[in-house]
Amino acid sequence: MPIEVFDAAAPEAVYDFLGERIGARGRAHWDWKYRVGRGGAPNAFYWRGDDGAVLGFIGMMRTLLHGPGGPWPAAWFVDWQVVPGERGVGVGVGLLRKAEAAAGILLTLQGSADTRRVLPLLGWKESPRAATWLRPLSGRFVAGWARKRLPGWLGAPVGVAAGAALALLAGRQSGHGAVARDVERLPPEHDEMWQRRCGELAPLMTRDRAYVDWFCSDYPGGGYRIALLDSGGVAAGHLITRTDRDSAGLLRGRIVDLVWPRAHEQWLADAVGLACRRLKAEGADYVQCLSSRPELDAALERQRFRRRAPVPVWYHRLPAEAPRPDAWLISLLDCDRAYR
Amino acid sequence: MRSKRDEEHGQNVRERIVKVFAEVFGIPAAVVAAGVAPDKVKGWDSAKHVELVVALEEHFGCWFEPEDVPELVSLERMEEILAARCGAN
Questions:
Q1: Smallest CA–CA separation between B50 and chain A, in Å?
Q2: Does B54 sit within 8 Å of A89, measured CB to CB?
Q3: Which of B54, B68, B71 has the CB atom closest to A122's CB atom?
Q4: Using the beta-carbon criterion (under 8 Å), do A95 and B72 form an inter-chain contact?
Q5: Residues A298 and A212 occupy one common structural domain
Q6: Owning domain of residue A65
Q7: pTM
Q8: What is the number of H-type helices and E-type strands within chain B?
Q9: What's the complex ipTM?
Q10: Which residues of A touch B70 (CB under 8 A)?
Q11: Which of A161, A270, A288, B32 could cross-link to A176 by cystine, CB 3.0-4.6 Å?
Q12: Which of A119, A155, A159 is nearest to A137 (CA)?
């Protein structure tokens, strides 16, 4: 069998392949990401040639899609790579079909240029609703933007002026009651809140403590900041943020995930503002957020975010009774970019 | 031993494969019939292979197993796999 499950028996050649083709993240990262040695359904497959060489890999991040009539088993496919040249021809599609058969609903977000070229040929569709949003937080970020778009002599003064204005705006609060309580791991009361909010926010992917703790608290690289959002002393949602250095050397803040009481629009805008203030305090030059729903779009606009690039959801063979991806609430927690 | 009727059916499947291949790659059927391989056909990359797989499945009304897909790299293997998976013979 050329297709093998990526499990504890996988040879070192698979880790070498991942390190060379995807990134040098180390064995601990891959074992964490694909839950190697923890039993359960397979989360990744690789293609082994007759000579033992690894010719391709596909990983899945399993989840559940909650919604009326659900939940439905689903998985985001990630780390889909094959060796270049003739030996790789057909291997990628074979692995994708293996993942489809193993996943229930198989999905991916955005995808590489090659992925976007191949998926339509296989009958996959895309929903363009989701998009990244961005808000500058520092003069350094604005100066970098200005250098690319304005005459050179204007870049520095624009950055200084923008930095002062952003510092003033960042401090504003409207006081509608979102209070963050930092936690290392989500407590049991979170799941009581999740059970209440799940129906309000559906359709969306699982956000229980086991899932969130695995992807954030247990991430080998650390760096996630998890907070319960209290309203009137009771857990009403959660906020997950993170900072990373981007390729330009700027500190990128991310609102990785946000769960909120749906009935309170102002509360949501406050929670977004709270996230920005926390990231600003950590030194972030800008904040990035992924939004797929109009109420979060509106809250982001109120907090001076601007819509940037679309992040299409690619899907294939949804059950007829499942909600279409245009209606799903997704965040950076749902896509691999948060863990690269 | 194959009967004449079996050979005619086999030839028919081969001709149909050649026709599908020629349409996908935009090359004359006579060239295809002489034999194909990824290193001999210009433009046979991963994406083109996907087109070929989908076109063969649609034409023959069948579904290839994941392990079959990279094997579809010669007329002989296409014929064998179509016979095994789709009963095309």
A1: 7
A2: no
A3: B54
A4: no
A5: yes
A6: 3-127
A7: 0.87
A8: 4, 0
A9: 0.81
A10: 2, 47, 89-91, 94
A11: A270
A12: A159
